[in-house]
Amino acid sequence: MILNKHVGLFATALALQLGIVQAQQNPVTLDLSSFEGNKGSWTEVGKVWANPAIPNELQAADGSGVFANLPTKKNPGADIVTKDKYGDLDLSLEYMVAPGSNSGVYLQGNYEIQILDSWTTTTTKPGDNGGIYQRWDESKPEGQKGYQGYAPRQNASKAPGVWQKLEVSFQAAKFDASGSKIENARFLSVRLNGVIIHENLEVFGPTRGSMTGKDVAEGPLRIQGDHGAVAFRNVEIIPFNAKTPTVSNVSYETYQGSINNLEELAGKTAVAKGTVATLSEVPASVSDVNLTKYTANLNVDEPGEYQITLQVPGGLAGFAAGAESISSLSDRGVRVRKQLKAGDNPIQIIASKNRNWSVDGFNLSISGPGLRSTDLLVSEVGASQATDPILVDADETPVLRSFRDYPGSKRLSHVVSVASEELVNYAYDMETGTLIQVWRGEFLDATPMWNSRGNGVSVPRGAVINLSAPAVNAVKSDYSASEEFRTKGYQLIDGSEDIVFSYLLASQAVKDEIKILESGKGINRSVSGIGTGYYKVAAGTEIQKINKGYYLLPETGVYLQYDEATFGAPVAHSVDGTAGIFLPAKGNIVYNLLF
């Protein structure tokens, strides 16, 4: 049984089908008291915000739950490091960067993930937000000192003054008993605002400004504080320090034929049997349809609850641990949670290849206390199982009609997605005239839409903001909706990326024009023919005024900018139980959304 390059994709797809997640871990929550090195610029607050027009400044309000670096000329700030040290870990945190500001998160004090105001950047570099910073060699000529940095796959950044989420899975460098490094550190994945920007990246040594200048088995989490204003909240670390479990003393029995339940084994004689040291040594003795029963010892380092996932691609699976026995078989795989003792635990496995096209063997993984999901065996699967993603080229297809899945709504069937050179994109539901999504970054993944038979759904690739669920945006002065809405399609404005959507609302012709701002900071929307009343611009209940005509909508993470003298202040209101932010309408409405 061997591993090939297609295993990962297939195993991931099957894991998603089974709804597989790793066993519940116990995160370590960090606050300002978890760190040392504070020279006075770091403080605990209850709330922070920014004016995007004022560089390197965050405003703060008293309270708790947020720790912010608020440097001044007299106190320019300093790095802080955790009192505890970590090896392999998962890190999750939210941060807010001030306009034009700069910070960084160093894993083990040595490997920096850059934090930067990279708003509107279209070509990413290692020094941009989410980048793995370069290593550094002062002996090299100017322009060549930095090397081996990793730029994020795309700019998934949000605007300054908006909370952003960073999720990191990190594997520390490994050392032998003599202290010699035998494996480099590795970023297994880095996700920024829901978008994977790095995956399986090997780092060959510490990045610039590291604490030790060399790889270590354990080190602190370090946050840069000498480059500008930044704030953090919901900082959690899951340390993974358990030894990798082993499977030993494996006995197997293989029965030939298409076997769909355990009763069919009655009276059958095994065509192959034996005992081997590990699962990977079991020979593939039968190439036709067959069922193999395994018994073995599963050895874990720590007692506790473990999640065990058995995948049998295209076949049937069974698993039991301890004194239990397998009573039935499940299609394609099983996922179980078991209390295991430290040391050897008896297990049973059944893998039935009951169809000619099924794959021989199985995939087995485990997660548990201090142990991230770890493969105990990955069988060979055919190359035909792997599917290359079908990505929409925004230059060739800047406008695409498709279905869209929107949280809490039925599948939408008349959605128009629009791309731009500024990498600012949006999706519009033509059945209701709703701007449902905006996102910054790459355009669309059409794999579910076009692969095999397809389901018509396209998926945004960038950092998506779910702006508002489908509903007629224009409402009367009492917030009641018109009984008539009928779409009349859309038209591209010659020589531009701008689009005008048309519809009838209470027999009145409405023009809804959406433009990408030249600054790349968001979109401009101009809606005419909607009468008086109110117009919904986003979901949510909270409105935070930055200055006149400039508001932050924290729940969606967008800024609302408009002529307040003409239209008046925005209001929060619920219609049919759905909360929204509305602007007073004067026959038309014009506003910008910045994100």
Can you give a write-up of this model?
The chain is mainly beta and 595 residues long. The relative contact order is 0.11. Residues 1-20 have low confidence and may be disordered.
Provide the descriptors you would attach to this structure in a database record.
3 helices, about 600 residues, ten-stranded antiparallel sheet, about 5% helix, disordered N terminus, mainly beta, eight-stranded antiparallel sheet
Q: Which structural category fits the helices and strands? A: mainly beta
Q: Into which percentage range does the β-strand content fall?
A: over 45%
Rounded to the nearest angstrom, the distance between the terminal CA atoms is 49 Å
Number of strands: 43
Shape: globular
How many helix segments? 3
Give unreliable regions as ranges. 1-20
Rg over C-alpha atoms, rounded to the nearest angstrom: 28 Å
Largest sheet: 10 strands, antiparallel
Global mean pLDDT: 92
What multimeric state do the chains show?
Answer: single chain
Q: How helical, in percent, are the residues?
A: under 10%
Sequence-ordered SSE layout with sheet pairings:
Layout lengths: L6 H12 L9 E3 L4 E2 L5 E8 L9 E11 L10 E3 L5 E10 L4 E6 L3 E6 L18 E2 L9 E2 L16 E8 L2 E2 L5 E3 L1 E8 L2 E9 L18 E2 L6 E11 L5 E11 L15 E5 L13 E11 L3 E18 L8 E11 L2 E11 L9 E6 L2 E8 L12 E2 L6 E6 L7 E7 L5 E6 L4 E7 L3 E2 L1 H4 L8 E2 L2 E4 L7 E2 L9 E8 L6 E7 L2 E9 L5 E18 L4 E4 L2 E4 L4 E5 L1 H4 L3 E5 L2 E17 L1
Antiparallel strand pairs: 1-17, 2-5, 3-4, 4-17, 5-16, 6-11, 6-17, 7-8, 7-16, 9-10, 11-14, 12-13, 14-15, 18-19, 18-20, 20-23, 21-22, 21-23, 21-24, 24-25, 26-31, 27-28, 28-29, 29-30, 30-33, 31-32, 34-38, 35-36, 36-37, 37-38, 38-43, 39-40, 40-41, 41-43, 42-43
